[in-house]
Amino acid sequence: MQRLPLFSVAALAVASLGVAQIDPVPWITKRDLNSGVGRPTYGPVDLDAATGSFRHLGCAYLNGEFYVSTRGLGAVATPPHTMYVFDGAGALTRQFTQQGSAASTWGYRDGASDDVATLVFGFESTIVFIDANGAFTTTIQADNGPQTVASPTIPSFTGDVLNTARAMAYNPSGNGGNGSLYIGDFGSDIVELDLNGAEIGRIPANGSWSLYGLAYDPMTGNLWGNCSPNGELGRIVEIDPVAGAETGLSFDKPEGIQGGLDYVTGGVDGRNMGADLVSVVQGSVDSLTAHRLHLYDTLLANAEIDLLSGRNGTGLDDAGERGSFATDSSWDLDLDDGDPTPRAFDVAAFAINLPPNGAVDGVLDPLVATLFPELGEIRYLDSFTSPMAAGMTLYVPTTEAAGPLSLGMNAIRTGLGAMQGDQIRIQAVYGDLNVPGAIPVMFTNQTRLTLDYTPAFGVSVAATGTNSFNSDTAAGFWTITNSGPFEIIGAQITLVDGIVWDADQTGMADRFDGGNSTLAGCLGTYRNSSDVNCDLDYNGTPASACDATAFTGFILENPTLTFTFLDSVTGANGGFGSGKVFEWDCDTDGGGTSGDAHAGAIVTITVVDPVTATVYASQRALEISANPNEAIVTM
Questions:
Q1: Contact yes or no for 142/179 (Cβ under 8 A)
Q2: Please, what is the Cα angle at 576 between 571 and 581, to 5 degrees?
Q3: CA distances from 280 to 52, 96, 227 (A)
Q4: Gap between the Cα atoms of 121 and 130, Å rounded
């Protein structure tokens, strides 16, 4: 793909609002689906509430109606199986029994239509042709005119192809214009059949997709699959049937397990141009959603510019970042053009929606929404949107040779006056002569930046040594070191990769669950009196297993270990303040036992500002250190 990178940006000319320079700055960016390819144009419709069932599988679209195949009837899961029909407003209008599926445990899976009068659905070893009311038919429209099939029920494969025709697409141009069917089953090959069930082509499985739904796109000749990769966060992906591979164009679906998929000519939102895809998601609530695909007949989805985001110049994609990044991070933005043909315009602009309204969905003036369908809920055009919001635009010339735009966190914090909890939305606008009408302007997808300022704690947590079964009373295998301005009042470590805490292990110069016991052999493994010096809170913790009069000083819910500490007011030794180290030995089982083997363990530290009494919490993962046999994190 050709990329349209950014080589300069106008000054970030917004006065600072006096935000304190506190570091590090965790922040999260994520793609919004309010605009761009994948934007919802219908739904999500709560299928469970509408039908009384939670076993919705496939879907098809025909003449303004959405057909959803469902196992059983309502709450009953046994045959006969049901087809539910929804109108363009998302209302359930009618239902009928699935013909020919009484012997199937689940009934029809995914479906497709000829956009005239016929629906096609597949299930175990069988494909059925039905009309809009569910009656069998033997006629389907193709490029060469109406086609007559030998039977309204045909085998979904010949030979060893699939167990179930779980994913279904209809291509009216296939088989020389006589029409063909594409079927798939999770990670299987995609098989092309003629209208009597004979195999005429095959797309080998690529090891990534897991198909419950397929749709044929007549504007590109490509297929769309629901979804890749498998699972809750899989995306709806474009598949080139000639190359036999995903094209790289994809978009997010609602979170949940993949279901059916179908193509909607002209879209669902009344624009009567381009195309949408409608999909089923099987989740805690099954849903039906239509997603914008081609906005215009003259502008295909694969020719749009995509707004990418990432950090430190890497990981640029349109899926959005998920995670927290420290002060040495930057927010990186780039424009990705899927069409190698040079654009008529060589300037793009970033529209930034300033806080505090970046998290609020505004409503566009109807005229603006009509002129610019992908403007979505970005609200920098104050006079045209409600609620009004301050905003700014960064005009960024683009060239073929330059790199992405990189915004440092200080620029965002001081230049935009962004504060803790703010959400900033950003969207790019560019000119494109393929946009119909007098204003050839197009908007990209949006990306949302969420800021959550957390002060630098100056606290490090480490696992150091060759073996967590450590009998060296001179130093603890585990350490929490406070070098910052705050007092630590809580610490929690959750082990990963199947590793657990072995709290009652003997032979470590006493045992960890001895706590503050004074009995020989049960003295605990807090090292160098650090439990006392750091005001470890023994109150309310379980009694020691080896001394009923003692307390452990921790809560263990494997694989999570939790400590609490008294502050300088309630603690006898000034709390767990700066300059103090809390250290202990506790054996770990179920994996590697050296310090570096505990990389990935999740550490949560809670501190209190002794001046303002403000409480902060931060969570990070241990990382392998430059020192041998050590995993450490500083927050």
A1: yes
A2: 135
A3: 16, 19, 11
A4: 8
Regarding predicted confidence, which is higher, 618 or 208?
208
3-class secondary structure per residue, 154-214: EECCCCCCCCCCCEEEEECCHHHHCCEEEEECECCCEEEECCCCCEEEEECCCCCCCECEE
**pLDDT value of residue 367:** 74
**What would the two tokens of residue 488 be?**
């630590």
Which residue do the tokens 């895809």 mark?
277
Rounded to the nearest angstrom, the gap between the alpha carbon of residue 49 and the centroid of all alpha carbons in its chain is 25
Reading phi first (left if > 0) and then psi (alpha if -120 to 50, else beta), residue 489 is in alpha
Cα–Cα distance between 336 and 104 in angstroms, integer?
46
Helix (H, G, I), strand (E, B) or coil at 621: strand
CB 398 within 8 A of CB 405: no
116 phi, psi to nearest 5 deg: -125, -65
CB 495 within 8 A of CB 580: no
Structure tokens at 355: 């806080």
CA-closest candidate to residue 405, choices 380, 376, 390, 426:
426
> pLDDT digits over 154-177, tens only?
987 755 557 789 999 999 999 999
> How far from the centroid of its chain's Cα atoms is residue 55's Cα?
23
398-410 confidence digits (pLDDT tens): 443 345 677 666 5
